[in-house]
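name: query_chain
kind: protein
chains: 1
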Amino acid sequence: MRAVVVRPPAAGARLREAPTPPLVPGSVRVRVLEVGVCGTDRDIVAGKYGEAPPGSPDLILGHENLGRVTEVGPGASGLAIGDLVVATVRRGCGRCRFCRANRSDFCETGDYTERGIRRADGYLADEYVEVPDYLVPVAPSLRPVAVLLEPLSIVEKAVRMGLAVLDRKEPTPGFPRTGPPSALVAGTGAVGMLASLVLRVRGFDVVAIDRHDADASEGLLRAIGARHVNVAAGVRALGGASADLVIEATGSVPLDFDLVNVLGPNGVLVLTGIPNADAPPTRVPGGALFRGLVLHNQAVVGSVNANRTYFEAGVRDLRAFEERWPGLTARLISSRIPMERWAELLVERPAGAIKNVLTVAPDGTGAERAR
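structure:
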């Protein structure tokens, strides 16, 4: 089969023939339809990180995915040939209490694997084999947007973590909230835009920020009742506004520290972006920062990966998005190009793009013909 592979820790990638995985008892075979591309994939291609599976020099890329079941092995249940599925990414260590409870995103040993990232092949290939526990069924009506489910799962977890912290100050019986909660989303890539959608569905007033003038994201934000602000000159562009919940999706360390100053009383900042660990140190007024966190009862929380629970929540929200804003979610996909042109997306991110997708196999729906 065809696969796009890297050889960590070396930089670079290539499209090559790879062995077709065998169908083992209890598993199903999935034909890959689409694979989304994100900054993690580009960092792996650049040689910044990534680990090949044990016994192999190569790692098949790709963790954002959509496929169709083509074969069901003996002993596999819950899925049928023809089902659309999205595979989760992380596989637990099997030893800690969280991994044994199917919550590998909270793994305590660090000995997990991640398909397409760490010690396990990914999905940027013609097909893969997996057990049903790690496959989330998707309704045919969601086919045009289902490849967004993996980044949406990241958002689902981040928002839930933030709401859990905000809930520490509720309820106040007899004293209802005087207005809707406020949220700020830092970044207008796929994760940031999906966070804006989720938060609007949850009833938040939303402001999304980035460091460039209007592009496709601004019109989409306006369509869902959110606001866009260019903070290229700093968060002072927000005019002193504060937020109950801030979702960060940039990986910019200087901006992360600035976002603490945007938190309102009792607010929470949830970090999802992964900064460059080799970047020069950032100077911050630590005393003022931590003093503010204490005196204003604020919190900063990190959120990584997502277990099946959040993928399932994402399926529900994809339906909610379509009901509230028909056709809008599909506009987050900036381009679909054939797998053979992988380098166009895995080496550099096209300017102005929200989410770019590689089409691996046509599926007769018309989605793969979008360019």
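note: The domain at 154-302 is CATH 3.40.50.720 (Rossmann fold).
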